[in-house]
Amino acid sequence: MLTIIGVMGPGEGASETDRRLAYELGRAIAREKWVTLCGGRNSGVMEAVTRGAKEAGGLTIGILPGQDTRDASPYLDLAIVTGIGNARNSINILSSHVVVACGMGKGTASEVALALKAKKPVILLDAPKTAIEFFRELDARRVSIAAGVEEAMELCRDLTRPSEPGA
Amino acid sequence: MLTIIGVMGPGEGASETDRRLAYELGRAIAREKWVTLCGGRNSGVMEAVTRGAKEAGGLTIGILPGQDTRDASPYLDLAIVTGIGNARNSINILSSHVVVACGMGKGTASEVALALKAKKPVILLDAPKTAIEFFRELDARRVSIAAGVEEAMELCRDLTRPSEPGA
Amino acid sequence: MLTIIGVMGPGEGASETDRRLAYELGRAIAREKWVTLCGGRNSGVMEAVTRGAKEAGGLTIGILPGQDTRDASPYLDLAIVTGIGNARNSINILSSHVVVACGMGKGTASEVALALKAKKPVILLDAPKTAIEFFRELDARRVSIAAGVEEAMELCRDLTRPSEPGA
Amino acid sequence: MLTIIGVMGPGEGASETDRRLAYELGRAIAREKWVTLCGGRNSGVMEAVTRGAKEAGGLTIGILPGQDTRDASPYLDLAIVTGIGNARNSINILSSHVVVACGMGKGTASEVALALKAKKPVILLDAPKTAIEFFRELDARRVSIAAGVEEAMELCRDLTRPSEPGA
Question: Which of A52, A107, B70, C87 has the highest local Cβ count within 10 Å?
């Protein structure tokens, strides 16, 4: 099975920084030969991360909330059309080996919380201080803070490394 | 249609205070002739709020994550068996006229975030300071803080009152 | 917990007979003090069965596919707003003690099939011959055929009766 | 976006013929450079079709009902972990450009019905006579019958061909 990195982040509400980091994340994920998964829409972090991944030759999957692909990112290889609205946020995180939150918004917050509930490792990138404090209090062990894309990728490498025998 | 107050809160991780407040909330919701909706399990805030509501003669609905009623609160009148796991958190909040978060945990955090995303009013009761700061930053307009059950009920009354013509 | 009878059937595609039988079913379910559950929309069997149940003083629940109550039957007491589209068909049948299919359509067929998969008893009323033959071949033991509302209610009474000790 | 062919069919209840046809279907889908999507479990048609597709160098996606990959087919490239049980059947068909039902069972029947509801083309392969008659009556226009894998593939080619201008 291929390793899937889920990148969550705001759509319409994404900042310029969120988009730039998401684009770089997508490129970096593709260079590791990992699959980029996101909420799939043609907006904000979803569009930026899939654009980055495609440009670097990676495979991209979008887990779309709607009933068709009308609002899909043009950079998706695979559109999973759920038709279940934001209930699909739970699928985003269950399907990811590591969850990277790039920026923060309401949907992103729900994904980080659901990820922690499902015992998935979460990396916060470009998160506001209140988010860092809240989520670290919820689950200090599973929440990592990355200062930039390189540090996020280093954490992903650690988190997806098969455990050594005897470790 | 009946007015539904959704009470979200931790299951196994609920504190004694969370449970006591949830029980009192259930009683108060029932006295207003509102319906109490929750995640439906036989644990923590879910069990306490439905027990309170039942004891005060109210109607209770549980939106269960599993495929059957095995782990349902014994105080449910109506068990909605979703079989969709924590994706049902989205249904909890979409079905509630007002969302009251009693205590805080990972699932509760996802519900508050999804409620704000769906533009539902949220009342935080017994929430830690980090949660208050985070969620108010996400959406100051829709997040209210209640100091106790009475204040939460006062907010619910305001939020469910039909808008006056010309208002 | 209250006993829930799920009545499934076509929306816009319902025949006059489907609607009339659904209305009578709703009345009969209410007279037994059971709860009427359906897909909740303001159309076809969903509207007719909830109208019948309300007129006879029963409690009605609709499991709505959309994100709000805009297309809800006006005869619902409780609107469960799922936002998950037709994936909610699975919730309809998991939440019902007995599933009655009144008429037949694409959505109804999916509900009968999911009900049998979940080992729920199904009563077919006003079903075409091809549906009867197909579903009986899928699971002869769990599919009953009712010639009319009275026979459907008799089957519901049998299927919801607590098993006797030693039986 | 890549073209996705969804192959639905029984798990534990699959016949030897169902499995053999599913395996051949998987091989044929891979040779066309299409993606094979299925319910993802390590059983029946799901396992056979992914095995065939992998052996022929194709890409495989499984839309798993559970909360993890424990019962996933070993021939999946991409495991979409939904955690929503059989409600995921709706995602299977919404994500597929063409739905091929290989054999028939309760879950498969729900998928064919949901596919027709969502206006997706459905190809029935190795379906019993009662299923053919029932589904053709539900929607004669969208249901095709294939006598074998070759005919199923010919139908898939027709159904995925971009419409010609002026056609």
Answer: C87
